[in-house]
Here is the input.
Amino acid sequence: MTIRPGSTVCPVQTVTYRWPTAVATDTPELLRWTGFGGALLLTAGAWAVSARTGGAVALGVAIAGAGLVVLTWALLGRTRPDPGWLRRTAAWWCAPLLLAPPLFSGDVFSYLAQGEVAANGLDPGMVSPAAGASAEAVARVGVYWRETPSPYGPLFTTVERAITEVTGGDPVLGIGLYRLVAALGLLLVVWAVPRLAAMTGVQDRTALWLGVMNPLVLWHLIGGVHNDALMLGLMLSGTVVALHALPELKWWQYTAGVVLIGLGAQVKLPALVALAVVGTALARRLGGGWVRFVAAGLAMVAAAGVVSVVTSLAGGSGFGWVQALGTPSKVNSWMAPTNWPGYLAGAVFGPEAGQAMISSARIAGLVLILCGVTVLVGRQLRGRISEVTSLGMMMSLIVVLGPVIQPWYLLWAVLPLAACLPVGTWRTRVAVLAGVFALLVPPLAGNFAGRVPELAAAYVVGIALVGGAYLLLRRARVSVAQA
Here is the structure.
């Protein structure tokens, strides 16, 4: 019998090799240590840059380390490790950054100078570093902030003064203590995010991946030593405590949650948004309706006022911080969409017209924020969206339509969104946005406007190193396909 190719007896089979669509069983461990290596590279490169050795190569190594962490974080999002494994991995990735110089921003040097102002018996909310701190401390502060008072609340001013008094103004010890405060804030975030996710039915491992292991968290809460870590930790943990108290109306527990949120607002004011969320939740628990909503709202305003007065008086900082709340908006942030019309008008009609347009657009942004918050509160009161979703969307409005955007401001929205967005298109978009912003700013503490050629060469080196690492991961059968 003759067997012909293609016949039913001997069908022709075409064998096509494809990259594996499932992640290998050892992939999470490989990614854990690859990300840890990226954090080490970032730290080592940053130290070399701060010591002014290595030039573009050192900066390229730091950029490659940052890119490697972002790459492994993205790949890790396709695996299914348990929450405990994710927490331990986040700790490993944070460990090198605890020993890094200030990364991506020099704000911690402003904290050190403001602490000196407070330790000298002056109010940082009314006296700028240039007028109340030593020349050495002022020299480390960014040029934009030397002549401006502190925009932070009285709780953080108390922390600043305490750190200065403990360290005697030593900048190295001071940075270490500020990083410890940031780590404590991050621990509160790690505690709160899975509990918020449980309220919305989102898996805690997906919430931890997007909300805790996010490179923006590593870069700016730990590496950048921003006080947003303390604000977010207090705000989110207070939200958890308050919402958990509502089913059985445990008033003492609910009050404790409100106080925690109020303390977060005494670090940075945007935390007050969470009071609108838990106040609306209380009104809904009591039966709903606008009368109960107004009563709960007045109670939240009163609670915020009491916490503010107590922290201002107990810390001895006074109330000058109220006058300095608009300090950050004195710099026109190119990332803020409300400033874009002004930049366009300035390019066409000149600087004065541009600044006038920026001012008008900021007012329009504020109006839109108020309208958006009103709509969200109404939807939450009627039970159409969850409390966590309401918080995430309100924070998103404040970030997008606010007068200033910094990469770490995205965390105000990303952390609550990580706890409420299910796996799908919107979650992917938030993750992509976080990954882009994690690579948008180079790992330099301070102004880098005069280092464009060096940055260009450094990014070439960094991209080449990350590309090589990606190819090695592919050869190790790590796939970006959904497992």
Notes: The chain is about 65% helix and 0% strand.
